[in-house]
Write a structure and sequence with these properties.
Blueprint lengths: L11 H7 L8 H4 L9 H9 L2 E5 L11 E6 L6 E2 L1 H13 L5 E3 L5 E6 L4 H10 L16 E2 L9 H14 L6 H6 L30 E4 L13 E7 L5 E8 L18 E7 L3 H15 L10 H8 L1 H12 L19 E4 L5 E5 L5 E2 L1 E2 L2 E2 H12 L2 E4 L5 E6 L4 H10 L10 H4 L1 E3 L17 H14 L9 E4 L13 E7 L2 E6 L10 E8 L3 H15 L6 H8 L1 H7 L2
Parallel strand pairs: 6-7, 7-8, 18-19, 19-20
Antiparallel strand pairs: 1-2, 2-5, 3-16, 4-5, 4-13, 8-9, 9-10, 11-12, 12-17, 14-15, 16-17, 20-21, 21-22
Helix pairs in contact: 4-11, 8-10, 14-15
């Protein structure tokens, strides 16, 4: 008889985390080696430090890989000072590929760093008073919040809370300081760094964990797509009174595994402000103790809640925190606000939302976007906000400076809100090829041509005023949140995509797959009949997604036959 296979109790990555000595081993021993890359175990630990080892597939030579590194910042609510932005801009030129990437979680990414310069790059980022600790890995990632500076007395309160919550949820290990900073204190944590993990434990969470804080009506952070979505509620003095809590959201899936799927979070309850930290920690501890550590494709909290049901999850939470949650409070309908163009702040100053196509800040041809933003940050010392739709807000601008800043942007080929089509403004793509290890097809490099061809169709049909969201990803993991878009193009195989329709860009309804394995060159032709039928048969003020949600997928299939 053959030997019986041991029943697996946890994944290989769980073993790596447990034996890492709180995120040190074997990373610390490999940082100073002459190798161009880290070993398989070290790269899993490296993620917790905010860095991914990648392979530029454009530069591969046979089996020889061209190793590079991506670094991601941890920037609660996407809020940066002018000096911080200028530092990151300089680091991008000195160590990376000369571009910055704004992510859909309000952080920045630097691409193209080589291993021998990785330590110097991370030190330079830390010197700018930004950390990368916990920007990746199986911990709470960057805490999101509305990006707009204070407009009506509420936004700033939420951003302060997001910053405090982020500090509380940072990993507590000293490994980051020892490996990259020679023991110097990392900037972001307000609490003393200790050599244990009171919240995360010795093996951290089963998978990444995402938290976002919304305002009533303003769901720019897509609260229902987070592991924990918080909606801040206010008293008559615009002080935060408490939070509605939404749990169990997440975008990732796998095309070949039916038991993986995108999921919207469910309404859990309401908690007063003075108890919210305890509740958030309680929810995280449930996922820590009961999340799937055998199968990483089932390890997100959305699958735990799907398996348990919300009632069981709430009972477990109450047993840990020792009190019951109040009923979920009624909210107005959510909307998606990009905060583009000129907007007034509560202090009388202005902020300007600049649309960044696919989040890539670079100089290319007549578009000198990177130079323009650097000059504005340097000359006018504006605040910088990175948005969940990978745009940039320039804040704290005096009335007298508005015209000069507008002229500077135009002089560098940068178009403002009213000069860009809605379709381009509401589109998003993930980086995908050539650097993302999970990508199976193009996204950031493919969407600009696709979106412009689609834009011609939209204008021909008189739909140019519609806020139609189109989002593309190079794989099914959903980094650009395609499953809540009006139209989602999701990488399926080499140069082929699945098409999803009927989501709600405000983040409150998932879309549905209606075509599979569509070649990139055919994407616009497949979507055109849907737009034509919508244009001819919609009700007054009915959005594209509301129309197809009402009419049904079967009609969409008939229309495109």
């Amino acid at each position: 008889m053959g030997r019986k296979r041991k029943k697996r109790t946890k994944s290989k990555i769980e073993n790596i985390k447990e034996s890492s000595d709180y995120l040190r081993a074997p990373l610390a021993d490999e940082v100073g080696s002459d190798s161009s890359h880290f070993g398989k175990e070290a790269i899993q630990v490296l993620k917790f430090h905010g860095t991914y080892q990648q392979d530029d597939r454009d530069l591969r030579e046979g089996r020889d890989r061209h190793y590079i590194f991506m670094i991601r910042g941890r920037i609660p609510a996407g809020k940066m000072t002018a000096d911080q932005y200028l530092s990151i801009d300089k680091i991008a030129d000195e160590y990376a590929d000369g571009t910055l990437r704004v992510t859909t979680r309000q952080a920045f990414q630097l691409h193209g760093i080589i291993k021998k310069e990785l330590k110097d790059t991370l030190r330079a980022i830390n010197d700018s008073l930004i950390t990368t600790l916990g920007a990746c890995g199986d911990v709470v990632r960057n805490v999101m919040a509305t990006p707009a500076p204070d407009i009506d007395g509420r936004q700033a309160k939420v951003q302060v809370f997001a910053d405090d919550l982020s500090d509380i949820l940072l990993p507590a290990t000293k490994a980051y300081h020892e490996v990259w900073l020679n023991g110097d204190k990392v900037y972001s944590g307000k609490e003393e760094v200790i050599d244990s993990e009171p919240l995360y434990g010795h093996s951290y969470l089963p998978r990444k964990f995402k938290i976002g804080i919304a305002l009533p009506k303003d769901n720019s952070i897509d609260a229902h797509t987070q592991d924990i979505g918080l909606v801040a509620l206010f008293d008559e003095q615009n002080e935060i009174e408490g939070f509605n809590i939404i749990v169990g959201g997440g975008m990732g899936m796998n095309h070949r595994k039916e038991n993986t799927f995108p999921r919207l979070g469910e309404d859990l309850g309401y908690v007063p402000k003075d108890k919210i930290i305890e509740v958030v920690k309680g929810i995280i501890s449930i996922q820590r103790d009961h999340g799937d550590r055998k199968n990483r494709k089932q390890a997100r909290m959305k699958y735990l809640i799907h398996k348990w049901g919300l009632e069981k999850f709430e009972k477990e939470l109450i047993s840990r925190i020792g009190f019951e949650l109040e009923p979920f409070r009624e909210l107005p309908d959510f909307d998606l606000d990009l905060y583009l163009g000129w907007n007034k702040q509560s202090d009388g100053n202005w902020f300007l939302g600049v649309s960044i196509e696919n989040g890539r800040i670079k100089d290319e041809g007549e578009l000198q976007l990177k130079t323009a933003l650097r000059k504005i940050a340097d000359e006018y010392q504006v605040g910088i906000r990175l948005t969940p739709n990978h745009n940039v807000l320039l804040t704290d601008i005096a009335e007298k400076e508005k015209e000069a800043i507008t002229d500077l942007l135009h002089d560098h080929g940068v178009l403002l809100d009213n000069e860009i089509s809605n379709l381009i403004k509401y589109s998003m793509a993930c980086p995908a090829l050539p650097t993302c290890g999970l990508a199976i097809t193009e996204s950031e490099r493919a969407l600009p041509d696709v979106i412009r061809d689609l834009d011609k169709v939209v204008h021909d049909l008189g739909l140019e005023d519609e806020k139609l969201s189109v989002r593309m990803t190079g794989c099914p993991n959903g980094c650009s949140r395609p499953y809540v878009a009006d139209i989602g193009f999701v990488g399926r195989s080499l140069d082929k995509y699945s098409i999803f329709i009927g989501g709600d860009p405000s983040g409150t309804r998932l879309n549905t797959k209606y075509k599979d394995l569509v070649e990139r060159k055919d994407l616009v032709d497949e979507v055109r009949p849907l737009l034509e039928y919508y244009s001819e048969n919609r009700s007054t003020d009915e959005s594209f997604s509301d129309f197809w949600d009402r009419v049904g997928l079967s009609k969409a299939e008939q229309v495109t036959v």
